[in-house]
Amino acid sequence: MHARGHDRTPGRVTEAPQPAPPMSEARRAVAAARRIVVKVGSSSLTTAAGGLDQARLDALVDVIAERCARDTQLVLVSSGAIAAGLAPLGLGRRPRDLATQQAAASVGQLALAHAYAASFARHARTVGQVLLTADDVVRRAHYRNAQRTFSRLLALGTVPVVNENDTVATEEIRFGDNDRLAALVAHLVGAEALILLSDVDALYDGDPRRGDATRITEVNGESDVDGVRAGVAGASGLGTGGMASKLAAARLAASAGIPVLLAAASDAARALGPADVGTAFAVAGPRLSARRFWLGHAADVTGRLHLDDGAVAAVIGRRRSLLAAGITTVEGAFDAGDVVDLVDARGHVVARGVVAFDATELPALIGRSSHELAPEQRREVVHADDLVPLRRWHASR
Protein backbone atom coordinates (compact mmCIF):
# COMPACT_ATOMS: atom_id res chain seq x y z
CA MET A 1 0.00 0.00 0.00
CA HIS A 2 1.10 3.57 -0.53
CA ALA A 3 1.73 5.88 2.40
CA ARG A 4 -0.26 9.10 2.48
CA GLY A 5 0.21 12.22 4.55
CA HIS A 6 -2.73 14.37 5.59
CA ASP A 7 -1.33 17.90 5.49
CA ARG A 8 -3.84 20.03 3.61
CA THR A 9 -2.11 23.38 3.97
CA PRO A 10 -2.77 25.59 0.91
CA GLY A 11 -0.04 27.52 -0.87
CA ARG A 12 3.50 26.36 -1.62
CA VAL A 13 3.66 22.82 -0.36
CA THR A 14 7.41 23.02 0.21
CA GLU A 15 6.82 25.43 3.12
CA ALA A 16 4.75 22.97 5.17
CA PRO A 17 6.89 20.64 7.34
CA GLN A 18 6.23 16.97 6.75
CA PRO A 19 7.12 13.96 8.89
CA ALA A 20 9.95 11.84 7.50
CA PRO A 21 8.55 8.98 5.39
CA PRO A 22 9.50 5.38 6.17
CA MET A 23 12.82 4.19 4.74
CA SER A 24 11.48 1.90 2.08
CA GLU A 25 13.57 -0.33 -0.14
CA ALA A 26 13.26 2.23 -2.95
CA ARG A 27 14.61 5.02 -0.71
CA ARG A 28 17.50 2.88 0.47
CA ALA A 29 18.34 2.09 -3.16
CA VAL A 30 18.33 5.79 -4.11
CA ALA A 31 20.52 6.68 -1.13
CA ALA A 32 23.02 3.93 -1.98
CA ALA A 33 23.08 4.38 -5.77
CA ARG A 34 26.47 4.84 -7.38
CA ARG A 35 25.16 6.14 -10.70
CA ILE A 36 22.26 8.59 -10.62
CA VAL A 37 20.33 10.74 -13.08
CA VAL A 38 18.99 13.98 -11.58
CA LYS A 39 16.43 16.07 -13.42
CA VAL A 40 15.67 19.67 -12.50
CA GLY A 41 12.92 21.82 -13.99
CA SER A 42 12.93 25.37 -15.30
CA SER A 43 10.94 26.77 -12.40
CA SER A 44 13.62 25.59 -9.96
CA LEU A 45 16.42 27.45 -11.77
CA THR A 46 14.91 30.68 -13.05
CA THR A 47 13.13 33.76 -11.80
CA ALA A 48 9.54 34.59 -12.69
CA ALA A 49 10.92 37.07 -15.24
CA GLY A 50 12.74 34.27 -17.01
CA GLY A 51 16.36 34.88 -16.07
CA LEU A 52 18.63 32.33 -14.44
CA ASP A 53 18.69 32.47 -10.66
CA GLN A 54 22.41 31.94 -10.02
CA ALA A 55 21.96 31.42 -6.28
CA ARG A 56 19.51 28.56 -6.81
CA LEU A 57 21.68 27.02 -9.52
CA ASP A 58 24.75 27.23 -7.27
CA ALA A 59 22.85 25.64 -4.39
CA LEU A 60 21.90 22.69 -6.62
CA VAL A 61 25.46 22.32 -7.92
CA ASP A 62 26.81 22.32 -4.35
CA VAL A 63 24.57 19.36 -3.50
CA ILE A 64 25.47 17.47 -6.68
CA ALA A 65 29.18 18.05 -6.18
CA GLU A 66 28.94 16.78 -2.61
CA ARG A 67 27.25 13.57 -3.80
CA CYS A 68 29.85 13.14 -6.56
CA ALA A 69 32.58 13.45 -3.92
CA ARG A 70 31.09 10.33 -2.29
CA ASP A 71 32.10 8.14 -5.25
CA THR A 72 28.88 8.64 -7.22
CA GLN A 73 28.64 9.20 -10.96
CA LEU A 74 25.89 11.67 -11.79
CA VAL A 75 24.14 12.84 -14.94
CA LEU A 76 22.16 16.09 -14.71
CA VAL A 77 19.17 16.58 -17.01
CA SER A 78 18.46 20.29 -16.80
CA SER A 79 15.62 22.33 -18.22
CA GLY A 80 15.91 26.10 -18.36
CA ALA A 81 17.40 26.94 -21.77
CA ILE A 82 14.27 28.55 -23.19
CA ALA A 83 13.45 30.26 -19.90
CA ALA A 84 17.01 31.58 -19.62
CA GLY A 85 16.77 33.09 -23.11
CA LEU A 86 13.62 35.11 -22.46
CA ALA A 87 15.13 38.09 -20.62
CA PRO A 88 18.11 38.59 -23.00
CA LEU A 89 15.67 38.64 -25.92
CA GLY A 90 13.25 40.98 -24.18
CA LEU A 91 10.47 38.39 -24.08
CA GLY A 92 8.01 38.68 -21.19
CA ARG A 93 6.75 35.11 -21.29
CA ARG A 94 7.49 31.71 -22.80
CA PRO A 95 6.74 31.95 -26.54
CA ARG A 96 4.06 29.73 -28.03
CA ASP A 97 5.47 29.37 -31.55
CA LEU A 98 8.26 26.91 -32.25
CA ALA A 99 10.54 29.34 -34.09
CA THR A 100 10.69 31.79 -31.16
CA GLN A 101 11.14 28.92 -28.70
CA GLN A 102 14.12 27.75 -30.73
CA ALA A 103 15.56 31.28 -30.82
CA ALA A 104 15.20 31.58 -27.05
CA ALA A 105 16.81 28.16 -26.60
CA SER A 106 19.73 29.19 -28.80
CA VAL A 107 20.45 32.19 -26.58
CA GLY A 108 19.53 30.55 -23.28
CA GLN A 109 21.48 27.33 -23.79
CA LEU A 110 24.74 29.28 -23.87
CA ALA A 111 23.85 31.08 -20.65
CA LEU A 112 22.80 27.84 -18.97
CA ALA A 113 25.92 25.92 -20.01
CA HIS A 114 28.20 28.77 -18.91
CA ALA A 115 26.44 29.02 -15.55
CA TYR A 116 26.86 25.29 -14.89
CA ALA A 117 30.50 25.26 -16.02
CA ALA A 118 31.36 28.18 -13.74
CA SER A 119 29.43 26.79 -10.81
CA PHE A 120 30.91 23.27 -11.00
CA ALA A 121 34.39 24.81 -11.44
CA ARG A 122 34.08 26.01 -7.82
CA HIS A 123 34.30 22.31 -6.91
CA ALA A 124 37.00 21.50 -9.49
CA ARG A 125 34.42 19.56 -11.52
CA THR A 126 34.29 19.53 -15.31
CA VAL A 127 30.93 19.45 -17.07
CA GLY A 128 30.08 18.22 -20.55
CA GLN A 129 27.07 19.42 -22.46
CA VAL A 130 24.92 16.78 -24.16
CA LEU A 131 22.04 18.02 -26.33
CA LEU A 132 19.63 15.34 -27.53
CA THR A 133 16.64 15.11 -29.81
CA ALA A 134 14.22 12.21 -29.83
CA ASP A 135 15.96 11.00 -33.00
CA ASP A 136 19.03 10.25 -30.87
CA VAL A 137 16.97 7.81 -28.83
CA VAL A 138 14.49 6.31 -31.29
CA ARG A 139 17.16 5.39 -33.87
CA ARG A 140 19.03 2.33 -32.65
CA ALA A 141 22.43 3.41 -33.99
CA HIS A 142 22.09 6.87 -32.40
CA TYR A 143 21.00 5.25 -29.11
CA ARG A 144 24.12 3.09 -28.96
CA ASN A 145 26.34 6.06 -29.84
CA ALA A 146 24.78 8.10 -27.02
CA GLN A 147 25.48 5.22 -24.63
CA ARG A 148 29.15 5.24 -25.58
CA THR A 149 29.39 9.02 -25.19
CA PHE A 150 27.85 9.01 -21.71
CA SER A 151 30.00 6.08 -20.65
CA ARG A 152 33.19 7.86 -21.64
CA LEU A 153 32.18 11.17 -20.05
CA LEU A 154 31.43 9.45 -16.75
CA ALA A 155 34.64 7.42 -16.88
CA LEU A 156 36.55 10.69 -17.24
CA GLY A 157 34.95 12.07 -14.09
CA THR A 158 32.78 14.59 -15.95
CA VAL A 159 29.25 15.59 -14.99
CA PRO A 160 27.19 15.40 -18.22
CA VAL A 161 24.56 18.15 -18.35
CA VAL A 162 21.74 17.06 -20.65
CA ASN A 163 18.94 18.99 -22.28
CA GLU A 164 16.69 18.53 -25.25
CA ASN A 165 18.18 20.23 -28.28
CA ASP A 166 15.35 22.77 -28.49
CA THR A 167 17.25 24.86 -31.02
CA VAL A 168 16.78 22.32 -33.81
CA ALA A 169 14.09 19.92 -32.57
CA THR A 170 10.86 20.03 -34.56
CA GLU A 171 7.42 19.10 -33.26
CA GLU A 172 7.85 15.66 -34.84
CA ILE A 173 11.12 14.85 -33.06
CA ARG A 174 10.60 16.43 -29.63
CA PHE A 175 10.62 14.47 -26.38
CA GLY A 176 7.81 16.75 -25.21
CA ASP A 177 9.31 17.29 -21.75
CA ASN A 178 12.58 16.70 -19.95
CA ASP A 179 10.97 14.35 -17.42
CA ARG A 180 10.56 11.67 -20.09
CA LEU A 181 14.03 12.49 -21.41
CA ALA A 182 15.44 11.92 -17.91
CA ALA A 183 13.76 8.52 -17.64
CA LEU A 184 15.15 7.47 -21.02
CA VAL A 185 18.63 8.73 -20.13
CA ALA A 186 18.49 6.91 -16.78
CA HIS A 187 18.16 3.57 -18.53
CA LEU A 188 20.52 4.52 -21.33
CA VAL A 189 23.37 5.20 -18.86
CA GLY A 190 22.57 2.25 -16.59
CA ALA A 191 21.58 4.48 -13.67
CA GLU A 192 20.73 2.90 -10.33
CA ALA A 193 18.30 5.71 -9.44
CA LEU A 194 16.39 8.63 -10.95
CA ILE A 195 15.71 11.78 -8.92
CA LEU A 196 13.13 14.26 -10.27
CA LEU A 197 13.39 17.72 -8.69
CA SER A 198 10.70 20.37 -9.14
CA ASP A 199 8.83 23.11 -7.27
CA VAL A 200 6.48 20.56 -5.65
CA ASP A 201 7.65 18.54 -2.66
CA ALA A 202 5.92 15.23 -3.47
CA LEU A 203 3.18 13.52 -5.43
CA TYR A 204 -0.36 14.48 -4.37
CA ASP A 205 -3.70 13.01 -5.43
CA GLY A 206 -4.75 16.47 -6.64
CA ASP A 207 -3.50 20.04 -6.89
CA PRO A 208 -1.80 20.75 -3.52
CA ARG A 209 -2.39 24.50 -3.94
CA ARG A 210 -6.13 23.94 -3.55
CA GLY A 211 -5.70 22.72 0.03
CA ASP A 212 -7.66 19.46 -0.22
CA ALA A 213 -4.99 17.19 -1.74
CA THR A 214 -3.44 14.24 0.06
CA ARG A 215 0.31 13.66 -0.07
CA ILE A 216 1.55 10.28 -1.29
CA THR A 217 4.95 9.22 0.02
CA GLU A 218 5.33 5.70 -1.38
CA VAL A 219 4.22 4.21 -4.70
CA ASN A 220 4.56 0.44 -4.94
CA GLY A 221 2.27 -0.25 -7.90
CA GLU A 222 -0.47 0.98 -10.20
CA SER A 223 -3.17 0.89 -7.55
CA ASP A 224 -1.28 3.46 -5.48
CA VAL A 225 -1.82 6.15 -8.10
CA ASP A 226 -5.26 5.21 -9.36
CA GLY A 227 -6.83 8.29 -7.78
CA VAL A 228 -4.16 10.79 -8.81
CA ARG A 229 -5.35 13.77 -10.83
CA ALA A 230 -2.12 15.13 -12.29
CA GLY A 231 -1.96 18.57 -13.86
CA VAL A 232 -0.15 19.24 -17.10
CA ALA A 233 1.44 22.68 -16.58
CA GLY A 234 3.86 24.20 -14.14
CA ALA A 235 2.65 26.99 -11.88
CA SER A 236 5.37 29.37 -13.04
CA GLY A 237 4.49 29.13 -16.72
CA LEU A 238 8.18 28.60 -17.51
CA GLY A 239 8.16 24.82 -17.85
CA THR A 240 6.25 22.31 -19.96
CA GLY A 241 6.10 19.22 -17.77
CA GLY A 242 3.80 19.53 -14.80
CA MET A 243 3.04 16.66 -12.45
CA ALA A 244 1.51 14.49 -15.18
CA SER A 245 4.83 14.24 -17.01
CA LYS A 246 6.72 13.55 -13.79
CA LEU A 247 4.33 10.76 -12.89
CA ALA A 248 4.65 9.29 -16.38
CA ALA A 249 8.46 9.49 -16.21
CA ALA A 250 8.55 7.87 -12.77
CA ARG A 251 6.37 5.02 -14.00
CA LEU A 252 8.52 4.56 -17.08
CA ALA A 253 11.72 4.31 -15.08
CA ALA A 254 10.20 2.14 -12.33
CA SER A 255 8.77 -0.28 -14.89
CA ALA A 256 12.30 -0.72 -16.27
CA GLY A 257 13.81 -1.52 -12.88
CA ILE A 258 15.00 1.94 -11.78
CA PRO A 259 13.83 3.33 -8.40
CA VAL A 260 12.63 6.94 -8.52
CA LEU A 261 12.47 9.78 -6.00
CA LEU A 262 10.26 12.81 -6.71
CA ALA A 263 11.09 15.79 -4.48
CA ALA A 264 11.35 19.57 -4.31
CA ALA A 265 14.52 21.22 -5.59
CA SER A 266 14.70 23.01 -2.25
CA ASP A 267 15.05 19.54 -0.66
CA ALA A 268 17.85 18.49 -3.01
CA ALA A 269 20.36 17.93 -0.20
CA ARG A 270 18.10 15.39 1.47
CA ALA A 271 16.98 13.88 -1.85
CA LEU A 272 20.63 13.22 -2.79
CA GLY A 273 21.52 12.36 0.78
CA PRO A 274 19.35 10.10 2.95
CA ALA A 275 16.49 10.17 0.37
CA ASP A 276 13.99 10.76 3.17
CA VAL A 277 11.86 13.36 1.38
CA GLY A 278 9.28 13.42 -1.41
CA THR A 279 7.66 10.42 -3.04
CA ALA A 280 9.53 7.17 -3.71
CA PHE A 281 8.55 4.86 -6.56
CA ALA A 282 9.48 1.22 -6.12
CA VAL A 283 10.70 -0.73 -9.12
CA ALA A 284 7.80 -2.39 -10.93
CA GLY A 285 9.72 -4.90 -12.98
CA PRO A 286 13.17 -6.33 -13.71
CA ARG A 287 15.79 -4.15 -15.34
CA LEU A 288 15.47 -4.52 -19.08
CA SER A 289 18.38 -4.97 -21.44
CA ALA A 290 19.28 -1.87 -23.45
CA ARG A 291 17.75 -3.38 -26.58
CA ARG A 292 14.47 -4.37 -24.92
CA PHE A 293 14.14 -1.00 -23.22
CA TRP A 294 14.78 0.78 -26.50
CA LEU A 295 12.24 -1.43 -28.20
CA GLY A 296 9.57 -0.97 -25.54
CA HIS A 297 9.97 2.69 -24.66
CA ALA A 298 12.19 4.62 -27.04
CA ALA A 299 11.81 3.21 -30.54
CA ASP A 300 9.82 5.07 -33.19
CA VAL A 301 6.57 3.14 -33.80
CA THR A 302 5.35 3.12 -37.40
CA GLY A 303 2.27 0.89 -37.33
CA ARG A 304 -0.16 -1.35 -35.45
CA LEU A 305 -1.12 -4.99 -35.60
CA HIS A 306 -4.51 -5.85 -34.06
CA LEU A 307 -4.62 -9.32 -32.47
CA ASP A 308 -7.36 -11.72 -31.51
CA ASP A 309 -7.65 -12.94 -27.91
CA GLY A 310 -5.79 -16.17 -28.63
CA ALA A 311 -2.79 -14.32 -30.04
CA VAL A 312 -2.72 -11.95 -27.08
CA ALA A 313 -2.70 -14.92 -24.69
CA ALA A 314 0.15 -16.54 -26.62
CA VAL A 315 2.25 -13.39 -26.94
CA ILE A 316 1.71 -11.97 -23.45
CA GLY A 317 0.86 -15.02 -21.35
CA ARG A 318 3.20 -17.58 -22.89
CA ARG A 319 5.78 -15.22 -24.46
CA ARG A 320 5.38 -16.84 -27.88
CA SER A 321 6.11 -15.31 -31.27
CA LEU A 322 3.27 -13.63 -33.16
CA LEU A 323 2.03 -15.61 -36.16
CA ALA A 324 -0.13 -14.36 -39.03
CA ALA A 325 -3.09 -16.46 -37.86
CA GLY A 326 -3.56 -14.27 -34.77
CA ILE A 327 -3.69 -10.92 -36.60
CA THR A 328 -7.06 -9.36 -37.43
CA THR A 329 -6.14 -5.92 -38.83
CA VAL A 330 -3.05 -4.04 -40.01
CA GLU A 331 -2.55 -0.27 -39.64
CA GLY A 332 0.21 2.00 -40.89
CA ALA A 333 2.87 2.08 -43.58
CA PHE A 334 5.91 0.14 -42.36
CA ASP A 335 8.70 -2.00 -43.73
CA ALA A 336 10.16 -5.25 -42.44
CA GLY A 337 12.47 -4.36 -39.55
CA ASP A 338 10.32 -1.46 -38.30
CA VAL A 339 8.80 -1.34 -34.82
CA VAL A 340 5.03 -1.77 -34.46
CA ASP A 341 2.52 -1.84 -31.62
CA LEU A 342 0.52 -5.00 -30.92
CA VAL A 343 -3.06 -4.14 -29.93
CA ASP A 344 -5.74 -6.29 -28.30
CA ALA A 345 -9.45 -6.43 -29.22
CA ARG A 346 -10.23 -3.54 -26.85
CA GLY A 347 -7.68 -1.23 -28.46
CA HIS A 348 -5.05 -1.49 -25.70
CA VAL A 349 -1.40 -1.64 -26.73
CA VAL A 350 -0.15 -4.83 -25.07
CA ALA A 351 3.27 -5.26 -26.67
CA ARG A 352 5.73 -3.80 -29.13
CA GLY A 353 8.03 -5.57 -31.53
CA VAL A 354 10.07 -5.65 -34.72
CA VAL A 355 7.90 -6.78 -37.63
CA ALA A 356 9.29 -9.22 -40.18
CA PHE A 357 7.01 -8.26 -43.10
CA ASP A 358 6.18 -5.07 -44.98
CA ALA A 359 2.72 -3.59 -44.36
CA THR A 360 1.81 -4.34 -47.98
CA GLU A 361 2.57 -8.06 -47.54
CA LEU A 362 0.51 -8.73 -44.43
CA PRO A 363 -3.13 -8.27 -45.57
CA ALA A 364 -2.91 -11.41 -47.69
CA LEU A 365 -1.48 -13.40 -44.76
CA ILE A 366 -3.50 -12.39 -41.71
CA GLY A 367 -5.82 -14.95 -40.18
CA ARG A 368 -4.20 -17.83 -42.07
CA SER A 369 -2.44 -20.78 -40.46
CA SER A 370 1.17 -21.52 -41.35
CA HIS A 371 0.27 -24.60 -43.41
CA GLU A 372 -1.92 -22.38 -45.62
CA LEU A 373 1.00 -20.11 -46.50
CA ALA A 374 3.75 -20.46 -49.06
CA PRO A 375 7.03 -21.81 -47.60
CA GLU A 376 8.78 -18.41 -47.81
CA GLN A 377 5.91 -16.87 -45.80
CA ARG A 378 5.96 -19.41 -42.94
CA ARG A 379 7.91 -17.25 -40.51
CA GLU A 380 6.92 -15.33 -37.42
CA VAL A 381 5.41 -11.91 -38.05
CA VAL A 382 7.08 -10.74 -34.82
CA HIS A 383 9.62 -13.10 -33.26
CA ALA A 384 9.52 -13.56 -29.48
CA ASP A 385 13.12 -12.35 -29.23
CA ASP A 386 12.08 -9.06 -30.85
CA LEU A 387 8.94 -8.52 -28.79
CA VAL A 388 8.42 -6.68 -25.47
CA PRO A 389 5.15 -6.91 -23.48
CA LEU A 390 4.15 -3.50 -22.15
CA ARG A 391 2.77 -2.66 -18.73
CA ARG A 392 -0.19 -0.29 -18.93
CA TRP A 393 0.08 2.63 -16.52
CA HIS A 394 -2.88 5.01 -16.47
CA ALA A 395 -3.26 8.09 -14.27
CA SER A 396 -6.63 9.72 -13.75
CA ARG A 397 -6.53 13.23 -15.14
Describe the structure.
The protein has 397 residues and is α/β, with parallel strands linked by helices. The chain has two domains: 4-291, Acetylglutamate kinase-like (Carbamate kinase); 300-389, Archaeosine Trna-guanine Transglycosylase, Chain: A, domain 4 (Roll). It contains eleven helices and 16 strands. The chain has helices spanning 25-32, 54-68, 81-86, 98-121, 135-138, 140-155, 178-188, 242-255, 268-271, 290-298, 309-317, and strands at residues 4-5, 35-40, 73-78, 127-132, 159-164, 193-198, 203-204, 215-216, 218-219, 260-264, 279-281, 301-307, 327-332, 339-343, 349-354, 387-389. The strands form three sheets. Strands 4-5-3-2-6-10-11-9 form an eight-stranded mixed beta sheet, sandwiched between helices. α2 (54-68) packs across α4. Residues 5-15, 170-174, 232-241 and 393-397 have low confidence and may be disordered. Pfam families: AA_kinase, PUA. ATP binds at residues 39, 198-199, 240-246. GO terms for molecular function: ATP binding; glutamate 5-kinase activity; RNA binding.
The end-to-end span amounts to 21 Å
Could you name the ranges where pLDDT drops below 50 across 5 or more consecutive residues? 5-15, 170-174, 232-241, 393-397
Order of helices and strands: EHEHEHHEHHEHEEEEHEHEHEHEEEE
Tell me the radius of gyration.
22 Å
Q: What's the number of extended β-strand segments?
A: 16
CATH-defined fold name of the largest domain: Carbamate kinase
* Structural class assignment: alpha/beta
Give the CATH level 1 class of the largest domain: Alpha Beta
What count of helical segments does DSSP give? 11
> Into which percentage range does the β-strand content fall?
15-25%
- Helix fraction by DSSP (H/I, runs of at least 4): 25-40%
Under the CATH scheme, the architecture of the largest domain is: 3-Layer(aba) Sandwich
Shape: globular
Major sheet: arrangement of strands: 4-5-3-2-6-10-11-9
